[in-house]
Backbone:
């Protein structure tokens, strides 16, 4: 990651959300009017996404980016109904929820956690687009090489005695299994009712067909920008880790359920990407 620049993979995810707003059919899987305003339209990820937007492989990747945010925000809405009042976004990248939050989001204190350089770049983009920072958003630029997640978040005002909803999208594949377990254990120590929704990727050798092709390309691309994939899991392996860490309720979003709920009847080629999975766990 270059000095003063956001993560290239975070940029690519935001570019896909922006393309969804501009080119895909209505209704949108994820309504995100902010993404097109803050992506670097001259950057390689955006240009590549536009050039290849109708390719089946690109549609599969785009489906993943919009599904993971939409599903997470649907789970967050349920959590707010249970009176959860803290939202912790781990590896926030160019996440835009805080800047397009619905009325029910205003009851939340939102914490965006990421590397200081990534957050610096995001704030510069928001300022250039004249997008204000909402009062209920706290940026938490934490360098995990020098401070723990617990100490870093405490310093930025996260109340460790308050039930919290956490999202962790597009991150686990870049971390060691030890770092993943450490994060699970931290979340599980928060009060009962705390919830996490996160993405993971199954072992590549378990994939086949277009799924295997798309994931191989994505993995090679991430490696080429210095962000290699290193951790892969089967659902049962993750459930064991989560329950061992202290989570009581664990559920994996089946691709068939996601297809029925979010993509049924679409004619733009978007559909559930079974190669990137979503898991939900509650303390």
Residues:
């Amino acid at each position: 990651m270059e000095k003063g620049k956001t993560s290239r993979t975070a940029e690519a995810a935001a570019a896909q959300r922006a393309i969804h707003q501009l080119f895909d059919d209505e209704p949108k899987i994820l309504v995100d009017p902010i993404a097109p305003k803050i992506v670097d339209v001259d950057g390689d990820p955006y240009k590549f996404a536009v050039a290849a937007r109708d390719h089946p492989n690109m549609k599969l990747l785009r489906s993943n980016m919009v599904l993971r945010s939409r599903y997470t925000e649907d789970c967050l809405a349920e959590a707010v109904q249970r009176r959860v009042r803290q939202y912790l976004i781990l590896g926030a990248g160019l996440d835009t929820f805080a800047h397009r939050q619905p009325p029910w989001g205003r009851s939340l204190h939102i914490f965006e956690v990421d590397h200081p350089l990534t957050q610096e770049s995001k704030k510069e983009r928001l300022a250039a687009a004249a997008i204000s920072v909402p009062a209920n958003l706290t940026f938490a630029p934490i360098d995990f090489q020098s401070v723990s997640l617990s100490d870093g978040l405490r310093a930025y005002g996260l109340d460790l005695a308050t039930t919290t909803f956490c999202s962790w999208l597009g991150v686990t594949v870049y971390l060691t299994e030890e770092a993943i377990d450490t994060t699970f254990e931290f979340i599980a120590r928060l009060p009962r009712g705390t919830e996490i929704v996160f993405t993971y990727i199954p072992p590549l050798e378990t994939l086949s067909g277009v799924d295997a092709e798309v994931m191989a390309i994505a993995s090679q691309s991430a490696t080429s920008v210095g962000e290699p994939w290193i951790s892969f899991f089967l659902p049962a392996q993750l459930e064991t880790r989560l329950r061992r860490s202290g989570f009581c309720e664990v559920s994996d979003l089946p691709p068939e359920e996601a297809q029925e709920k979010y993509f049924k009847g679409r004619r733009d080629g978007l559909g559930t990407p079974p190669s990137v999975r979503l898991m939900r766990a509650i303390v």
Strands lie at 86-90, 109-114, 137-141, 164-168, 195-200, 249-252, 277-282. The two ends are 34 Å apart (CA to CA). The CA atoms of residues 184 and 242 lie 7 Å apart. The chain has one domain: 8-282.
